[in-house]
Amino acid sequence: MKKDRSKTKEQLILELDEARRLVVELESATAKSKHAEETSHESERLLNNSEVRYRRLFETAQDAILILNGDTGQIIDANPFIKDLLGYSLEELQGKNLWEIGELKDTLASKISNQQLQDSGYVRYENLPLVTHDGRSIGVEVVANAYQVDHMKVIQCNIRDITERKHAEEAIRLNEAQRESLLKILQYRGGNIREFLDYSLNEALKLTDSKIGYIYFYDEGSREFTLSSWSKEVMKECAIPGPPTIYQLEKTGIWGEVVKQRVPIIVNDFQAPNPLKKGYPEGHVSLIRWMSIPIFSNEKIVAVVGVANSDSDYGQDDITQLALLMSSVWNFVESRKMEETIQFERDKLTSILNSMEDGVCIMNRDHDLEYVNPSIQSQYGNIDGRKCYQYFNGLKDVCSLCNNEEVFSGKTLRRETELTRAGIIYEITDTPLRNFDGTLSKLALFHDITERKKAEQMKDEFIGLVSHELRTPLTVIMGSLRTAMSEGLSRDDYHELLQNAAEGADSLNAMLENMLELSRHQVGRLQLRLEPVSIVHVARGVIEKLKNQGIRHRCRADIPMDLPQVEADPMRVERILYNLLENATKYSPEGSEINVSSRMEGDFVLTAVIDHGSGIAPQNKLKLFQLFQRLDASSLAKGAGLGLVVCQRLVEAQGGWIRVDSELGKGSTFTFALPQYKKKAIA
């Protein structure tokens, strides 16, 4: 019985241990479940953020992006830049099949239908010629990816204009100085790309125990070979005068098969008949054994290397050694080319920023200024280690309106700010800028809107002024006519009321005419009918019109009858004189004299309107020919401040000029000049 009790105790201990193990596993499983749930929520949040970032990148990308239904080829979506690059709006593309679009069906459509894309889900064309909607030819880089979205196959095509880059690459290739950067491989030190490739070819000859060799660059877009390097022995043995350095793939023989078949080729008996050989011209180097390999970059053949005339047959080891060497060589070549391209793009970006009229400023989280372009420097000087609030506002501490916290959290903000040190109103766009090291800076674009704000204020003032000035003559007209319809009026009262209405109508008509002339000038639709015009007749006609409108001034024209005619638009000359005379009546005492005189000066006829009013202060003369300026706001003179501006625009449009001479208390003289009419010689 004692032995049985001992067994039971041991079993209880085992069961207790098992229970504890199960409890631990249960707690662990619970913790894992909770962690999985938290991870799921975090993943969902990150996914949502990723979708927002993707859409933002999609909408603002400076590459054209097309989204296609992978099964039907129908266009699902396109970003705004597609219109800038190719000239198609989203409405013209959406819902259509890429094969339906005439300018794209023979190029882009056929490339996207490439079997490579269907098989691997990725295809890239580095220099694809495209014709835009308006018929322009451009070179583009096309990257197409096929992937699944919600169980639907989607093809995304990124199209980048590489015209400028191709031009730059061509310039780099032609400019030997840009290719003299030193590259190193193995034990080699010094030399430019050409020298480096010459050296590499020499190493390839040593590795394969060959006598002669070559390196040709290859362009899959143009299907052309361009000679890069020939071994010295080739130049010694070749007797062909002026051998070509560029070959079309279609015109090559067996050595072009390396590209056509995209594999290395070995011929250990070159003299034996071969259907792929096309022969070579007299004087060509004699070939005994020959081997060539293609060099790939991003699945494209970028060059071919050939060696020949080894003392022994070429084999797989030779291919392997040559491929490994040239792979390292090409990595260095492309690395150097990339450095040059990056430097070019960096210089181009700096040039753009330095030439921008808008200000550009970059700062970090601590308000340190990292960069300001010359536009900002011209207003605020050099940075000299100052913080942004010190540099722009002369403050000792952070501005109360600082938005760094929001911008560095990922927001793009726009605001209007007047920076008092420069007296300029800016529209500032602040946006986060991610640096190469992963840190964030703030990019601020300063757009000067000072003139726009002035124009908006002027517009508001104009609307208020014109609404008032238009209402005044309308009130007179309506009041006079209503009163005139009343019974019991005398004939004199009736006539006076009609005269008041007529004067109001004339005033309204003059104001509307000025507004129309100003509007025509501003939109570039001021059409002039130039012909011989007599200043005498126009002046007398305007004076008579003003008298009929009831002016209470003595206006007279002191103009010689034999004064030469001017070459001008008669209606516009009448408008100029009317505005000047009406302006003189507004600012001259009733009963005072207003004279119009004319004389010749060189090839111009000068006409002056002279009044004896209050005159104009010197500091106000510059304001006379500005919109909506009335120098004496307290006077009873009516008008919207348009008359003199219209005079200046009309005179200058007809090849003349206008000026004012005035003295306070003695009156003003407005003089305008128009070219004398000269008869055209009959051919």
Task: Using brief descriptors, characterize the structure shown.
23 strands, disordered N terminus, 6-stranded antiparallel beta sheet, 683 residues, 5-stranded antiparallel beta sheet, alpha+beta, 19 helices
Structure explained in plain terms:
The relative contact order is 0.04. This protein is α+β, with helices and mostly antiparallel strands and 683 residues long. The longest helix has 59 residues. The strands form five sheets. It has a six-stranded antiparallel sheet. It has a five-stranded antiparallel sheet with strand order 2-1-5-4-3. The protein is elongated, with a radius of gyration of 43 Å. Strand 20 and strand 21 form a beta hairpin.
What is the helix tally? 19
Arithmetic mean pLDDT? 80
Cα shape: elongated
Radius of gyration: 43 Å
Uncertain ranges: 1-6, 173-184
In total, how many beta strands?
A: 23
Determine the N-to-C terminus distance.
Answer: 148 Å
Task: State the strand order across the main sheet.
Answer: 8-7-6-11-10-9
**Percentage of residues in helical conformation:** 40-55%
Percent in strands:
15-25%
Largest sheet: 6 strands, antiparallel
Structural class computed from helices and strand pairing: alpha+beta
